[in-house]
Amino acid sequence: MQSGEYQFDREVPWEDAGAGIQRQVYGYDDKIMLVKARFEQGGVGALHSHYHSQVTYVDSGVFEMTIGDQKKVIRKGDGYYVPPGTMHGCVCLEPGMLIDVFSPCREDFLKK
Question: In Å, what is the CA distance from 88 to each residue of 44, 47, 49, 65?
Fold first, then answer.
């Protein structure tokens, strides 16, 4: 299981992830995955947890991010790390884009 070596923005389809969120799945193999998540203002990444490690870069926008029992406002240029099994989620305050990296790959994001 792996993607091709190159992904071109104009060729990677956007998928509806619900609640004002769309995502593009970029490069991946069984150990790692890169995903772009585009949020409308008011879009909600509902609180959830997963066994993957996650690091995220805020490419644009403003988000109220919750990780565990901490809530912070994050903006373009900021980033965060979510340890495996930790509850996390966000609310988009200004339209924006998050760049997520997961390890291992989020198999649930791949079309069956």
Answer: 11, 5, 6, 7
Amino acid identity of residue 59, one-letter, is D
Cα separation of 102 and 45, whole Å? 16
Residue closest to 103 by CA, chosen among 31, 37, 24, 48: 31
DSSP label at 52?
S
> What pLDDT was estimated at residue 112?
58
Q: Are 36 and 24 in contact (CB under 8 A)?
A: yes
CATH superfamily of this structure's domain 14-109: Jelly Rolls (2.60.120.10)
Question: What is the token pair recorded at 45?
Answer: 């990444």
What gap in Å lies between CA 39 and CA 60, rounded to an integer?
10
Whole-prediction pTM value?
A: 0.94
Domain segments of the chain: what residues? 14-109
Q: Is the CB of residue 52 less than 8 Å from the CB of residue 103?
A: yes
